[in-house]
Amino acid sequence: MPPLKLQPAIEALLFSSDQPLPLTLLCDALETGPEEVGAALQRLGEEYAARAAGVQLREIAGGWMLVTTA
Question: N- to C-terminal Cα distance for the chain?
């Protein structure tokens, strides 16, 4: 069953991982299509940037990962 709140679910998965998570793995874990997960990733990254957060969302080595801001 897909989560009701996609962005917090993605954030939790990314936060708990020490390696980049591929879009396919995120889609499988969240039982949600790549279009929805991709859009949620984009919104999440934009939200971090807009508030000058201490973390940023990066696409690294074919997956997505939260990293500290420089």
Answer: 37
